[in-house]
TrEMBL record:
Name the UniProt record assigns to this protein: Adenylate kinase
Organism: Sphingomonas abietis
Domain commentary: Consists of three domains, a large central CORE domain and two small peripheral domains, NMPbind and LID, which undergo movements during catalysis. The LID domain closes over the site of phosphoryl transfer upon ATP binding. Assembling and dissambling the active center during each catalytic cycle provides an effective means to prevent ATP hydrolysis. Some bacteria have evolved a zinc-coordinating structure that stabilizes the LID domain.
GO molecular function, one term: AMP kinase activity
Binding site for Zn(2+): C130, C133, C150, C153
Amino acid sequence: MNIILLGPPGAGKGTQADRLVKARGMVQLSTGDMLRAAVKAGTPTGLKAKAVMDAGQLVSDDIVSGIIGDALDGIEPGHGGIFDGYPRTQAQAVSLDEILDARGRTLDHVIELSVDEDKLVERIVGRFTCAQCGAGYHDSFKLPKVSGTCDVCGSHEFKRRPDDNEETVRTRMAEYRAKTQPILPYYEAKGLVSRVDGMADIDHVGAAIDAILDAKG
Ligand code: AP5
């Protein structure tokens, strides 16, 4: 099964993808994570992408569709993919169809996380992760049990994304409204879209997604 998680920054795409990886053995394909890894490694793609990402704008369609195709090639047959943050434009949606088709895969669900954008700014600006193991935390909702120490690996080093400041988050949301939300009718016409209330708590959002995946198989 291959699915798209669609929603604006902070809607919970990464959180739910992570849960599906653990619960169902699916593989998360996050273009944001792949681009951040390329930036960190200083690859040519990373060098091109860094300034665009820091400004909250979209990286070019060719770059992201290329890295998604490569990532999909790394998934063993029989394992489903969770597209997290891809596609984000109409051109990417068309590319994804071609990429899946060329690999004998089909798209089974597009799950839109509906959210109240004003509340998302708090979600994003407050989040941080362990620099060692990547465990996620939040200033308001989920602090480490022992202050300054990661619950999972005991590290004392944490980091925040450079694009998680309020001004950039507003740009990212505007990009979502202008370029990503308009691709929904493309998938609605194929009967693939289900909507989930992304403002419910994490477990309820997860249960709603599970119900969709289990109902349609
Ligand atoms: P990307 O990394 O994809 O960022 P994003 O879409 O802005 O999404 P986020 O990771 O910020 O949010 P999320 O929905 O995953 O929420 P999360 O689960 O973390 O992209 C970054 C940049 O890369 C883009 O701006 C662009 O430049 C570039 N890029 C990436 N893909 C691209 C593409 N296809 N084309 C072109 N450019 C591309 O949750 C957020 C917080 O909320 C966490 O703290 C979490 O714990 C908390 N939370 C989650 N769910 C809930 C809940 N239900 N209740 C309470 N708290 C919750």
